[in-house]
């Protein structure tokens, strides 16, 4: 991993470690791609929380597992959005796909199939029991149906990945050795010199019985680098991906992190190779089940968040 170059001082004003929070060029929306397959609505502000910044994993208030070296977590506690922050997010509606989060809802018949298939997992005490608890024919059928749903969102790349995660975990993504990496950006497609704004993204669908959370900084990596003072950007010009994300969070630990509730039967579309993010099951009691598709997902520009209205066009959360 490239070394981080942190000069003793930088000329960014009285508080060199603070940047404006909740950038207005980001967008959070929920609406259909195809009216017959999606519920239409907006992302309600009351399902979004915000952290005042980030901390190294070893400074976390609760240790819920081993962390990789350099891992960074959202700072505790979480709080509701302030009116000005809601306004900033609303003003971002219609911005570039690389700076957006879209929330979609599965048709009810697919949600029902998923709940029925994975219901037996609640009786599993460890991962070794999962295979025996699932009906293989039903599992294959569900993957096929979900694949068709994902194809309605755009061009799917490769095979889907089903991940089952432990409940009540602050962050979810792990390395092969089981250590959690914390807030990061994906590198499924990125190569040195790539324009991350144009890379494929992720569709992640919650197939579990409880809410799961998407954690994210609403500052795209491509824009993040341009926010660095010139001397920092020059000194770290060879950093990319998660090393650059960690550099930014280390240097600006008070940049806010958003926590968006993704209810059972809902999914999110995110430019995960350009947005710092992770999943979370904090506060839950059951196994988390999510299916991930990679691809060029493009949802039409419509509306942003709403301060009070529920997501999903009246569908239950």
Q: SS-based structural class?
A: alpha+beta
CATH architecture descriptor name: Sandwich
User: What is the count of β-strands?
Assistant: 14
- The overall average pLDDT, rounded, is 74
Uncertain runs with pLDDT below 50, 5 residues or more?
Answer: 1-41, 299-317
Query: Main beta sheet, described?
Result: 6 strands, mixed
Q: What level of helicity do the residues show?
A: 10-25%
Strand content: 15-25%
Shape call: globular
Note the total helix count: 7
The top level CATH class name:
Mainly Beta
Largest sheet strand order:
1-6-12-9-14-7
Please sum up the structure shown.
The chain is 20% helix and 25% strand. It is of the alpha+beta class and 317 residues long.
Q: What would you say this structure looks like, in words?
A:
- The protein has 317 residues and is an alpha+beta fold.
- The protein has one domain: Jelly Rolls, CATH 2.60.120.
- Helix content is 20%, strand content 25%.
- It is built from seven helices and 14 strands.
- It has helices at residues 83-91, 108-118, 130-133, 136-151, 221-227, 230-235, 241-251; strands at 27-30, 48-51, 54-56, 67-74, 78-80, 100-105, 154-165, 180-182, 201-206, 212-216, 257-262, 266-270, 277-280, 288-297.
- The strands form three sheets. A six-stranded mixed sheet has the order 1-6-12-9-14-7.
- Helix 2 (108-118) packs antiparallel against helix 4 (136-151).
- Mean pLDDT is 74; it is low at 1-41 and 299-317.
